[in-house]
Structures are given as C-alpha cells and as structure tokens.
Amino acid sequence: MTLCVIAAALPLGHAAPALAQGSADSLKLPDDLTIFDKRDPHLHKPTAVVNGKIITQTDIEQRLALIVLANGDNIPAEEMDRLRVQVLRNLIDETLQIQEAKANDITISKAELDDSFARIAANFKQTPEQFTQYLQSKGSSAASIKRQMEGEMAWSRLLRRNVQPFVNVSEEEVQSVIDRMKALKGSEEYRVGEIYLSSTPENAQQIFENARNIIEQIRQGGSFQAYARQFSEASTAAVGGDLGWVRPGQLPDALGQALTEIDVGQIVGPIAIPGGFSVLYLMDKRKVLTADPRDAILSLKQISVAFPAGTSPAQANARAKSFTEQLQKLQGCGSVADLAKQLNAEVIDNDNVRVRDLPAPLQELMLNLQVGQATPPFGSVDSGVRSLVLCGRDDPQDASQPSFDQIMAQLEDDRVNKRARIYLRDLRRDAVIDYN
Fold first, then answer.
1. CA-to-CA distance for 297 and 312, rounded, in angstroms?
2. Strands in 225-339 per DSSP E
3. Which residue positions in the chain have pLDDT lower than 50?
4. Does the keyword Isomerase apply (predicted)?
5. SS3 435
6. What is the pLDDT of residues 2-33, one digit of tens each?
7. Are 192 and 282 in contact (CB under 8 A)?
C-alpha cells in the first residue's frame, strides 16, 4: 500500500532519491530510478478492495474531513497525505470488522444508525437534516459518520458474543487487586488515554513516524479523543482511547515508566511495546483510596468587568490594576454586590463547582484561598477582566474503594481488549485486499 501511495505522488519523469542502504539492497534497485506512471489524483477510482468491498478515494476524503473538522480545520497541508494513508488503513480495518460481524449474523439496523446520528446532531444543536448539510459543507457526509458508527457498534457486539463470554476472571484475582489497592493507599493512580498502533518489524519505522506526526498534531491543538477514535487499534478507540483509572504497575513497564514522567495534560510517545507503539495522554491523576482536594465542591461568585471596544493593552492593564486594588478591599462574599455596583460589573453565582473542573492555573489558586477571599484578576483584552470569590467549600470525604464488580469488569475489559487486537490481526492476515 505504501509503495503505491508513494508512486502515485511522484510525477512522470522525475527521479526518486536513492534508497537508504539496508534490507532493500538485495533488490539491486537503481539509484536513479524513475516512476513511469502518472496518476490523476482527482480520478475517483477504487483505492482498495477488501474481500470484495470497494473503498474509494471519496470514502477516504470524507473520513479525512471529519478529522479536519475535529481539529478546527487546522491541519497543515503536508500532513494531509500522511493522514490519507492512515485513514485508508482504518477504513480497511473497519470493513473487516463489519464483514466479520455480518459473518456471525450481527448487523446494525438503519434505525439504530439513524438514532445514533440524531443524537450526535443534537450535540451540535442541529436536526439530522441540518447536520447532514453541515457535514456536506465541510467535505464529509452523513454516510461517512454512519459507517464509522456501524463499525464500532458491530465490532463491540461481536466481541461481546465471541470474546467476552470466554474471558474468565476469578474471585481470587479480584480479591488480589483489592488487597493491593489497600496496600497502595495513598499512592498515585492515573486517568490515561491511549492511541495504540500495531506494527510489524517490516513497517515499524513507518508506524513510528505516523505516531510522531499524530503527537505533533495533538500538541498543536488537535483533539486526542478524535485521533484516538480514528486511528487507535485498541477497542478503547470507541471511547476516545480512555483507559480509565490505572496504576503504572498495571501497564507494560515502558508505559508505566513514561506515565510517571509527565504531568496532567501532557502527551508522551511513541513508546515501543510488543506488537506496536503507544501514545499516552495523562488526563488526570489522584491518590489511591485517598480524598483528592480537587474534588472539593465550591460556592463561587464571579465578578466580571468588560472592556469597551477598542481598548488597548495598556488601557486593559490599567483597568486590571484598578480592579486588583478594589478586590483587596473586598470584605467577603457579602460585599460582592456593592463592589459590582461600584465597578458596573456583572456577577455570576455558582454553588456547585468542583475544583478539578476549573482550568489548571485556577485550581491551584482556589485550593489555597480562604472563604471570602478572591483570586487575582484574570482575562484578556477581548474578554475583559474577572475574579472568582470563594464563598464556601465542601471538602471531599476519603475516596471509596471500587466495588468487587467494578474491579472484575475492568479486568474483563482489559482481557477483551487484548484478545480483540489479536482477533483483528488475524482478520488482516486472512483478508484478500487489492490496492489500486
């Protein structure tokens, strides 16, 4: 597949660069080879045929448009070609999953797909018809999203029927986990997202580069969850790569070590593990069976001062300084209304805010505030300046231990996930795939 894509990208009569020395030496390829095949990139011909099912260039472009949309239309042009190769690979896997499900008499009805599509449209505050038009305006289609949903739903049901019933977790294993959790009380556990890409010795370098490019796109503002859904080959792809709460010892050594070296919100990888590479995203962390201060529930008042249109940075700084001086005179939440009237400011009350739901810079500020105190002003020239006043705090109780059934379910999910990877690998090996 890769050679076909590279060949199609080279114009007729242009020499390709010499190949690096290595395993290709035995082919005795000329250093000055020329590709004698010019292909029209606008010709919508089949790109691959998977056990008789055609995947067209249109299929690829419409799925690619979903990735672009999920990343705010902010993907460099040079990245698009690499993403097309990866999207083709994902569509092949998706096709194999749907075909295997149908071979086991599992089909997803049109009504189910329509209902799921309507729920997604509702998330965008649109009707299914409006959402369809929106997708078309972005170069995608309702059919592309429904095809992805069909693959996820069919594969999930197939695993529940053919894999999950044969995964056994004993009561002794669950009790062992409970005992370890008690022994580890106070140690850290992590909420982790993973993108897993399988590889072979032959394509390991290419998959490694693909993973690096994915990381770069996410660091530039791309959605980790969107990339996980599109590219991860783990069964957690359907939930945006979310592994849930884990401890480093539950992961392969390389992953567990990498996890302890990054902070919340950071991404690390590609990390070589048996069978491929993983990219990890640290979503959150907490202490085992220990109350997390960030789970405290706050009662807040927000004071907001808007800036007039055309306010310069210097003027904004001056107004922020004045706002700071006024906040220092604040005498608890009872005087917020008087201060707001004096500043012509807006006040918003919220009595149910978890510390961990605030932006990271504000979390540390709120943890150190006493009731009646205000944060330093924050904002921008465009949004104005604001401050949060702490009016009350309900501290969390000690974290409860997961139930026996919850632990058993997690162990079962982990084993189903591993077997699902092997299942898909075997489907690839047995498939008849023609590339065009």
1. 37
2. 242-246, 267-273, 276-287, 297-305
3. 1-28, 34-45
4. yes
5. strand
6. 223 222 222 323 333 333 334 444 444 555 55
7. yes
Pairing of strands 276-287, 188-198: antiparallel
Q: Which domains does the chain have, with CATH numbers?
A: 2-159 (1.10.4030.10), 170-291+405-430 (3.10.50.40), 293-394 (3.10.50.40)
Read off φ and ψ for residue 209, nearest 5 degrees.
-65, -40
DSSP 373: -
Tell me the HSE value of 51 on the side-chain side, using a 13 A CA sphere: 17
In sequence order, what are the beta bridge partners of 384?
Answer: 380
What amino acid is encoded at 232 in this protein? S
Q: How many helices (H) and strands (E) does the chain have?
A: 14, 11
Report if pTM > 0.85: no
Amino acid at 81: D
In tens, the pLDDT along 161-186 reads 988 888 888 888 888 887 877 776 76
Which helix (H) or strand (E) element contains residue 350? strand 346-354
- Tell me which residue of 352, 206, 351, 197 sits closest to 280, measured CA to CA: 197
Q: What are 218-244's pLDDT values in tens digits?
A: 888 778 888 888 788 887 887 888 888
Alpha helices, DSSP H only, in 110-203? 110-123, 128-137, 142-162, 171-183
Give pLDDT, residue 67: 81
